[in-house]
Structure formats: structure tokens, C-alpha cells
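Render Cell division protein FtsA in 3D.
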Amino acid sequence: MIELYETQRAMRNMRKAAMQRGVVAVLDVGTSKIACLVLRFDGSPRLDAEGIGSMAGQAGFRVIGAATTRSRGVRFGEISAMQETERAIRTAVQAAQKMANIRVDHIIACFSGAGPRSYGLAGSVDLEGNVVTEQDISRVLSACDVPDYGDGREVLHAQPVNFALDHRSGLIDPRGQLGQTLATDMHMLTVDAAAVQNLAHCVKRCDLELAGVASSAYMAGVSSLVEDEQELGAACIDLGGGTAGISIFIKKHMIYADSVRMGGDHVTSDISKGLSVPTATAERIKTFYGGVVATGMDDREMIEIGGDTGDYEHDRRRVSRAELIGIMRPRVEEILEEVRARLDAAGFEHLPSQQIVLTGGGSQIPGLDGLASRILGQQVRLGRPLRVHGLPQAATGAGFASAVGLCLFAANPQDEWWDFDLPVDRYPARSLKRAVKWFKDNW
């Protein structure tokens, strides 16, 4: 746990250094596309940035470079072919650098997949003085009982979502307040360690420094949910190519995240098999003519499949739109049923607000919101990412929710456990700091 803490601290420090230099890139490594945005920070502190800890109140920024390329070597949100992914990342980063006309050394990356699991931790400590200090927050975060999350897993996010001072709960920032006992609730998200290490290794091979890693589902929620939804409770469903990411927010904090290993590519694959066409043709047909709700008109609307096999009869085939919808709808329903099961397991129905926001490239299928409201619950809307200063028009669609969320996260990160100094008594046994503290206390 100490090594993990140190690596996360090092990445946070690297991010700070990159922001002081004024330029940082964000990279969304997805199954269907890799998007890179280059941000320039203008140095003026944001006054409206809330939150606690050393990171609150960060600078405003504008996007000065953006590029996207087809993702290669990524399956289910995890890297499956290192060379292919490295080439795709290099292509996206170089194109974004060219547009920005500046070189970037540090990137913050996000990815889906890797089997995320959420844990709720609690801890409490008695205060040494009467006033809550930064050191007390470090102590209470370290006092949380970390569960045995298994070998081969790594902590991706560990965020305090609530503080309680004596009998007063729901505090955002307890520092400077008076009390006797400080308690906290922390949300911890673990992922498969190999997936994170592969991503870090791939970024290193591209001659870039990794200044942060985040979960795509979390980033999509940050950019697609409006402030009221984050406050009152809402779920964000990020329908990507290989995975559907789920994140639940309340009180402006993520309290649960998960992912379903199915996405838009599975729908394309079904069309490809059902109509006996190449994947590229199936993707085009899905994009132009796809849908999930058939009407009487769809029996009469014929779609030219096209093709270049040389077999005239085969290439001149036509199917009705109703047939296409008949292929797509069962798979979309299956994905939404899986999402419903995850939301039920998370206890989503107990939240005061049951708003669900669909985002990601897969959410653009016509009629999806109507189908989702039948399967997931009544309050469903399609979400687009927030408008960010300097973002090109081409990058404002739902497919860029994670990339835009990563920009907001880079500028105004939420506090994590490693933003606070680890208390001296949690250091390894032979630590010099521990000895120094003992001398201070006893002489």
C-alpha cells in the first residue's frame, strides 16, 4: 500500500509540475478510438472551485490541440496488443501536438474496463487539539480499514466522500472547525493491476510521462452530469465501444463505479454476422440507419448493403430497416439489462434522485433513451459533455465525454487520499521520520 501511495504521490507532483509549465495533455484510451486533447493553463485561479485539500481552486484552461484516431490493440477497454496501441497513441498525440504547435511531455490518461470494484471505507480518530488540521485529515484517512481486495489489484481512486465531526455529518471540508472526534467515509475503487501497468508501460514507450490515471466511467460522469445531478444523486452510463461504464454520484462525489464488458462493437459484430457483411460496412449501416424502435415505415425503408466482393447478386442485396432494428435491439436490451443489474447491486434505488444519464458514442443510437427508460427506470436523458473553452466542434459529441471529463479533472481534481501527507506512524517500521517524531515527543 505504501508503494502505491508513493507512485500516486509522484504522479500528482508531476501533474503539478506540468501545470506550472502551463501545458498538459489528456488521453482517452478507448476500445474504438483514442482521443488526445492538449490543454494550456492560463494561471488564473478558479474562484468557484470547491473541494478540500491541496488541490482545490486550480487554474482555468483552454484546449489548444485535439486529435482522435482509430483505436488499435485495445479490447474491452484493456490493452491487448502493445505495439498497435503504442502506434495509435503516438498518432493521436503527435496530431494534437501539431495542432497546438507545442510539445507535451506529460499526459493524464483514462481507460475503461479492468474490472473495477467499489468499496466503502470508514474511519474515525480523536482530535489531538480542538481544531481540525490538515494532519488530522491525513490521520483519519489513514485510519480507514482497507479491505483485502486481493492480489493483482490496484487502487485507482480513493476519495473522502463525507466527513463527520462529533455528531455533525455531511461536511465537505472540516478543516478549521472545532470538535472532538473526526470521522470519514471513503470510496475506494480498485482495478486489475495488469491493465494499469500495461497502460503506464505503453505511455512510457511513447516517450511520455504519465501524470495521472483515472477511470473513464468516472470522467464521463464528471463531464455529463450537471451540478444538481451530481449533488442530488444520479448515475452516468458511458456506452463505449467495448465496455459500458457505470458511475453513481451523490453530493458531488463518485460513490460507486463498475463496467459491463459489452458495448457498441458488439452491436456492430451482430450486424456483421446477421447480414454477412464486413465489420466496416456493418459500422456504416449502424451509424446511418440503426435504431432500436421499429415503426410501420421501417418495413418499407430499404437499405442498400453494398459491397465489393465482385458477386453482383451478393453486392446488390437490400434489407429493410425493420430487419436491421431486429438485429440491433436484442443486443442493446442485453447491455441495458446488465447495467440494470449493476445499478440494483449498488442500491441505486435508495438514492433521493434516480436520474440516469446516457453518454458515450453508443448512446447516439436513435430511440435508445426511450428503450432505456423502460428498462432502467423513468428518468433517463441523453447527456453531452460540458462545453470547454477552445474545444473544437468535432469533439463536443457524447463520444468525447471521457476526454472532456479528463480535462475538468486535470484542472480541478477531487481530493484523493494521496493528496495528504501520510501520517508518520503509518510509515514502515525503520522509517527515519518515525524516529525523529519519537525524539520530538519524548525529549
